[in-house]
Please model this.
Amino acid sequence: MSSVYQINKGINKAMEFQGLKGQYIAYLAVGLVTLLILFALLYIAGVNMYLCLFLVLGSGATLFMTVFHLSHTYGQYGLMKKRAKGRIPAFLKFRSRQTFFKLSNHAEQ
Model:
């Protein structure tokens, strides 16, 4: 009695859903949950239901277009790389040379 098991060839590949890869799936999910909560709050606040639907559906369409645009523009890791590049300081300013002396002492040990 031998069993036949299929080997998963998708290990270490990015998660993909409808063309979205990686973190963009999470961005879309968080946006949709936020829109659901927004709809509930507007409805409870007594705003006209058709106005609530118009606002939420319009925001949802904008969310989908934005997330798909970011996904196709930057790819799986491009947006994270762009954000990381923006956080690099333009220059470093040291008031003494002691920092460099300490670094060289650590390298020698």
Summary: The first helix runs from residue 23 to 44.
